[in-house]
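Reopening this ticket.

The earlier resolution said the output was attached, but the attachment link was broken on my side. Pasting everything inline this time so it's all in one place.
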Amino acid sequence: MSEDRISLTPLTVADADEMVDVLSGERLYTFTGGSAPTLEGLRARYTRQVTGRSPDGLEEWRNWIVRRGHDGQAVGYVQATITEQGRKAEIAWVIGLAWQRRGYASQAATALVAWLFDRGSSRSWPTSIPTTPPPPPSPPRPGSHPPTSSTTASGCGGRSAPSRRTGRRRACRPRGRSSAPRGS
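Inline output:
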């Protein structure tokens, strides 16, 4: 998939070498918990993800590295977990701290949403609110989510709502919209 300023390249295990630095900022984990991955941990995660399916076969996993268009530099990733025979998807994105607030997340999420709708994900579907940290020193409030991630979600057609299953905030995509990027 490709947009003006970015390209989305399918995830490979070899991407871990570059992505370990992109994902190294501890502030990325303010809202999700955890910590920056090690190179070995990231290689193991990518080895599982590139299979394209959950172990039970009920979920399809799609993962892309978000790259700057002009030089191919990795700046983050987008992913989709597709269920219900392709009719429903949950998406997430993470952009490294050095590349945030430049529109990469918005372009990547919009391209992914368009790709999903073009392949038949026609029902409303939830999207995860990803890990864009707020400017310091504001500590997160319980149940809060990053404002820039909400902006990204609404920019690709989502709206904020609590998840029925987890109670966590999510964005819902309305039915029937599609605007796939060329070359996807």
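Reporter confirms the inline version is readable. Residues 128-152, 162-184 have pLDDT under 50 and may be disordered. The radius of gyration is 16 Å.
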